[in-house]
Amino acid sequence: MQKRPKAVALLSGGLDSILAIKLIQQQGIEVTALSFVTPFFGSKHAQNAARQLKVPLIVKDITKEHFPLVKNPKFGYGKTMNPCIDCHSLMMKIAGDMMKKSGFDFIVTGEVLGERPMSQNRKSLEVVAQHCGYAKYILRPLSAKLLTPTEPEIQGLVDRNRLLDIQGRSRKIQIALAKDFGVVGYPNPAGGCLLTDEGFSRKLKDLLRHRKNPHVRELELLKIGRHFRLNKNVKLIVGRNEKENKRLRQLRLSKDAMLFLENIPGPTAVLLGPKSARTYLKLAAEICAAYSDTKEDEQYPVVVQDENKRYCFPVKVNRKSRSLYPTI
């Protein structure tokens, strides 16, 4: 009996990656999904999609390999700090290595020719394929008829005639396919990767200007709060809601000074930096109070939790502090 072909499929959880797997499943091919995790994107959507597709999912944290590419991408950035070509090349290489090691026959990805101007034009797709070292084994079912036949098509493992020729930024065909396949609950196409977010990228650029090798915790902190650069070594983060306040408290280390107004609705703030950062506590308290539910020009005690010490800074509320100390 002929062996049933097996594919490893990159699954972001977005509609394109879901449909790519569906098209391959239709041909009786066994699919295992692969999703990646870094501080900039997670696997939540992939996990939901894998359940719907009824495929096993492997989740791999690639922070160690990925972050150097973010800092110094060989193929450059998109509009923000998104090194999409480098990132896709890394993912394809990891998928290819897994294919080789675990006995898969080829790699499946949901990329669509021309859908994204930087990373999914014809040249970029070719660069990714060549750079990762597995060009012959990368099958893009949604646009396959517009691309060079791959090994699984040449070997007859996949029927090329049952693949598609989608191109461009319109998603009308994909949405119609999703309806035909009964695919529901897929996320909208806007991002999923924080590196494509302008505000996040701005904060990341600031961090990398002042910290050559930031800790993962510092990257996690970029996702929450208003960020104030008080000097090259000192930064203040102010929560914007109770969810962010809670997350700030979770990520805070004992060496970080924490500020808040007791029994008054408002933010939790965390002051990051060396011990010399304590000279900025009064300023930090003023900024914290300016974003609290306080009355203008009245004085309030801002609580400071600093290692094992707890004390107060009395500050006069001045809403102008919000514009005098703009966020990053």
Describe the structure concisely for a colleague.
The chain has helices spanning 15-25, 44-53, 63-71, 84-102, 122-132, 151-154, 172-181, 198-210, 216-221, 242-251, 281-290, 321-324, and strands at 6-10, 30-37, 57-61, 106-108, 138-139, 226-231, 234-238, 257-260, 269-272, 299-306, 309-316. It has 328 residues and is α/β, with parallel strands linked by helices.
Key structural traits:
single chain; 12 helices; elongated; 18% strand; six-stranded antiparallel sheet; Rossmann fold; alpha/beta; 2 domains; 328 residues; five-stranded parallel sheet; 36% helix
Could you walk me through the main structural features you see in this protein, from its secondary elements to its overall organization?
With 328 residues, this protein is α/β, with parallel strands linked by helices. The chain folds into two domains: 6-193, HUPs (Rossmann fold, 3-Layer(aba) Sandwich); 224-324, no CATH class. Helix content is 36%, strand content 18%. The chain has twelve helices and eleven strands. The chain has helices spanning 15-25, 44-53, 63-71, 84-102, 122-132, 151-154, 172-181, 198-210, 216-221, 242-251, 281-290, 321-324; strands at 6-10, 30-37, 57-61, 106-108, 138-139, 226-231, 234-238, 257-260, 269-272, 299-306, 309-316. The strands form two sheets. It has a six-stranded antiparallel β-sheet with strand order 6-7-9-8-10-11, sandwiched between helices. Strands 3-2-1-4-5 form a five-stranded parallel β-sheet, with helices on both faces. The longest helix has 19 residues, at 84-102. The protein starts with 5 loop residues before the first strand and ends with a helix.
